[in-house]
């Protein structure tokens, strides 16, 4: 009994691969032994395997059982050793699954996917952004980078990475080189706008240095800092304070304008803003405008150029990025 106790104590410190390998060996070896000891009781090798599996898992259907003395003696060995080993293996499996889930929740796993969307910095704004992406692009994988102890939100498409986003190791853990786009939110815990933008600039500089071709969108607190972010080759800017203030002022003078903004910014209600590619039959902006209008969509811009109505007779570039306002159903029909 002392020897058996020593063996079991050693098994508890053996790694998981060793436990599973030994359990597999015991099951296969015991199946072969039982088949050899009692060929009449277990005419097929699978019958012996079935008996061993129902025994070590303590199911015990009773449809097969040894009748010879040798078979029963070996069955005692399976009771004493096999059941304990199988229980230990199942326990290790449950422990491994729990450890994997804990590592995922704590953001300590490396993301291996491609063409994903990276969000840096958790806040209420980031929460709304994640919800919007899940709503509009349910197939898209999202990687969130922050320094929280555990993931602030759970979803099968959301993967959390814990760490300093200005560090290359953290960005590599998020597999930024294979990402489709990155969105950097400003740190709301920093009250000084200059310090908040300084931290954001440090992060986006690390991002652009590691992946210069990635499409980056950054939230900025002060408009005069845009020139610094342009130097860092940031693609898009969102002015948090100025945008909210301007919307508030316009709503004060133009009743109902905030409803228009809400519809354009959210895909959950009303008409929405979409991007479409140029079609072969669209030679000029007028062709595109009239063609889209017949299908229920309104052309409003080419890239950041909103003066479409002033250049209807001009030719459309092949690489034009046309933006339209329409319902989701109309957009789906245009794709």
Automatic annotation (TrEMBL):
<protein>
    <submittedName>
        <fullName>Ion transporter</fullName>
    </submittedName>
</protein>
<keyword id="KW-0812">Transmembrane</keyword>
<feature type="transmembrane region" description="Helical">
    <location>
        <begin position="12"/>
        <end position="33"/>
    </location>
</feature>
<feature type="transmembrane region" description="Helical">
    <location>
        <begin position="73"/>
        <end position="94"/>
    </location>
</feature>
<dbReference type="InterPro" id="IPR013099">
    <property type="entry name" value="K_chnl_dom"/>
</dbReference>
<dbReference type="InterPro" id="IPR050721">
    <property type="entry name" value="Trk_Ktr_HKT_K-transport"/>
</dbReference>
<feature type="domain" description="RCK N-terminal">
    <location>
        <begin position="114"/>
        <end position="239"/>
    </location>
</feature>
<keyword id="KW-1133">Transmembrane helix</keyword>
<dbReference type="InterPro" id="IPR003148">
    <property type="entry name" value="RCK_N"/>
</dbReference>
<dbReference type="Pfam" id="PF07885">
    <property type="entry name" value="Ion_trans_2"/>
</dbReference>
<dbReference type="GO" id="GO:0006813">
    <property type="term" value="P:potassium ion transport"/>
</dbReference>
<feature type="transmembrane region" description="Helical">
    <location>
        <begin position="45"/>
        <end position="61"/>
    </location>
</feature>
<dbReference type="GO" id="GO:0005886">
    <property type="term" value="C:plasma membrane"/>
</dbReference>
<keyword id="KW-0472">Membrane</keyword>
<dbReference type="InterPro" id="IPR036291">
    <property type="entry name" value="NAD(P)-bd_dom_sf"/>
</dbReference>
<dbReference type="Pfam" id="PF02254">
    <property type="entry name" value="TrkA_N"/>
</dbReference>
């Amino acid at each position: 009994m002392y020897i058996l106790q020593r063996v079991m104590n050693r098994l508890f410190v053996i790694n998981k691969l060793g436990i599973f390998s030994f359990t597999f060996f015991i099951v296969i070896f015991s199946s072969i032994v039982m088949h050899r000891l009692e060929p009449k009781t277990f005419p097929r090798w699978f019958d012996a395997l079935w008996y061993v599996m129902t025994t070590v898992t303590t199911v015990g259907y009773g449809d097969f059982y040894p009748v010879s003395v040798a078979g029963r003696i070996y069955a005692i060995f399976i009771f004493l050793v096999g059941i304990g080993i199988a229980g230990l293996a199942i326990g290790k499996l449950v422990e491994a699954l729990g450890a994997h889930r804990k590592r995922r929740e704590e953001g300590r796993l490396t993301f291996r996917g491609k063409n994903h969307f990276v969000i840096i910095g958790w806040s209420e704004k980031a929460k709304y952004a994640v919800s919007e992406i899940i709503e509009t692009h349910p197939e898209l994988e999202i990687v969130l980078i922050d320094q929280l102890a555990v993931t602030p939100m759970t979803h099968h498409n959301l993967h959390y990475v814990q760490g300093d986003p200005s560090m290359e190791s953290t960005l590599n853990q998020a597999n930024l080189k294979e990402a489709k786009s990155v969105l950097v939110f400003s740190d709301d815990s920093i009250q000084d706008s200059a310090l908040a933008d300084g931290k954001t600039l440090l992060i986006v500089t690390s991002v652009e240095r590691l992946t210069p071709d990635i499409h980056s969108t950054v939230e900025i607190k002060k408009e005069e800092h845009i020139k610094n972010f342009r130097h860092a080759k940031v693609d898009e800017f969102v002015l948090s304070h100025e945008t909210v203030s301007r919307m508030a002022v316009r709503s004060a003078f133009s009743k109902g304008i905030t409803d228009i903004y809400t519809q354009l910014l959210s895909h959950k209600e009303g008409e929405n803003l979409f991007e479409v590619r140029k079609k072969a039959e669209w030679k000029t902006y007028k062709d595109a405008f009239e063609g889209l209008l017949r299908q229920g969509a309104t052309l409003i811009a080419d890239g950041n150029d909103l003066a479409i109505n002033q250049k209807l007779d001009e030719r459309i570039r092949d690489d034009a990025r046309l933006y339209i306002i329409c319902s989701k159903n109309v957009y789906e029909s245009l794709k």
